[in-house]
Amino acid sequence: MTSKRPALDEPEPFADDRELLLGWLAFHRDALSRSCADLTPEQLVERSVPPSDLSLLGLVRHLTEMEHWYLEGTLGPAPVEPLYCPDDDPDGDILGLDVSMVEPSFARWRAKQDTVDTLLAQQSLDDLTRSRSRTVRWCVVKVVEEYARHNGHADLLRERIDGVVGE
What we know:
Layout: E1 3-4, H1 17-36, H2 41-45, H3 56-75, H4 102-121, H5 136-162, E2 164-165
Parallel strand pairs: 1-2
């Protein structure tokens, strides 16, 4: 049986740029969180369908990496090293996952959001990144785009696991 989750609140339609972008970031974080809610660790590491390696845990780890790299890494005081995807394991966020990784990966995702939110509160969207190669706005849009694209995958994964559909 298919059931539908209640809709999430979208940002106000007439919000300024900052409220709008940070509102969409919060919306998409919540959407992914809800796609993972009430599932067992085994369900969270369940791959979709071959040949895909995607799992909900893999998506959480990938989006943690995106926030880490594009927001903390460019807006923070110093460059960062990859969390899950070093040069010798570029798909470490998605491949080789097991149930022992669920709790620490979700804790890291939540902690990364707190770090990023603190950094974003200190900066204007028009500020330049530490390397001066992009604006804060560009980096936030990039991460929102990553969440939006992968939340569609998360909805399909969740529906396949237990029939619950998202947005």
